[in-house]
Batch of 2 targets.
Target 1
Amino acid sequence: MKVYVSEECIACHRCYIYYPEVFAKDEGGYAKPRTTDHIDNKFEDMAEDAIETCPVGVISFDW
Ligand code: SF4
């Protein structure tokens, strides 16, 4: 699984507070994936929850 965050992130902090294994923040507080490569399989549930709970739906993924 690869994780993406679009430029419409509103910097609500949720994803990288709850799932720092998957997400980091940039200098403006906007989220970005911690890696541009595939995430570890053990973090996939975290990524899926972040995708479902992002208030503006800007996190996506592919395989
Ligand atoms: S949960 Fe969504 S809006 Fe909030 S910081 Fe993460 S990507 Fe941005």
Target 2
Amino acid sequence: MIILHICCGPCSIYPISYFKERGIEFKGYFYNPNIHPYKEFRQRIKALEEIQKIFDFEVIWDKEYGLRKFIKETFMLWDKPGKRCERCYIMRLTSTVKKALELKAEAFTTTMLYSIHQNHQLLKEIAEDLSYRYKIPFFYEDFRIGYQKGKETVKNLNIYIQGYCGCIFSEEERYSKKRKKELIKELKKSET
Ligand code: SF4
């Protein structure tokens, strides 16, 4: 059995279909202290619950709102998206690995490997490192190949699709033109 960390409902559809089509046994694991604010967190849980009903699979839920945990983990990295996301990936994948060990799973993986908006290479490196340190296989698959298919399915099912990654900082980066400009400036500065 594989523990599949699920970051949100829409990103889970393709990986779930992938496992089901191949007869690979898995359990979903929802652990995302990075989703803010509270109403958005509840909405994403609801979207995954709808998908769970349609596709019929097991999910281990952590429905505790994690703003405080996230703030602690990413302390002082809030305005450094690269570093902040790295901490965020480590936080969620470490918890996934621990859950996989607790349940004596054969491997772990994450639906974050489906998103074209995440740092795929960094995610892979972090998961490989955790796999080595905790001595549990990491099931790697480039789920991005099914991105379009997954997106169309979510649209057809009329399920809520979030507009930003998750944390309150990513919400600002998505919707504030001022913050977007600042980030581009910072990026250019770091390249010179
Ligand atoms: S942008 Fe996404 S991956 Fe990065 S810290 Fe925020 S929630 Fe985590």
